[in-house]
Design goal:
Layout lengths: L3 E13 L2 E12 L6 H31 L1
Length: 68
């Protein structure tokens, strides 16, 4: 059985009027044979976090556009 790493990251945005939107993402993948677990975990977490932040920024821009 291959070793796997799994990471997830989520962020909840208050969109006003007592409503919120949660954006989350995760990834699961096999650990390569000679790959360092901690480094792989750190790299995958950074990737997932970056993608969630991009989606949050897009959501916030869309909310600004809808307001104005």
């Amino acid at each position: 059985m291959k070793k796997q790493i799994e990471v997830s990251f989520g962020y909840t945005v208050n969109v006003g009027n007592y409503e919120s939107a949660k954006i989350s993402m995760g990834i699961t993948r096999d650990l390569l044979e000679d790959e360092d677990f901690d480094k792989a975990l750190s790299n995958e977490f950074a990737f997932v976090q970056e993608k969630v932040v991009q989606e949050v920024e897009t959501l916030l821009e869309d909310l600004k556009t809808d307001e104005g």
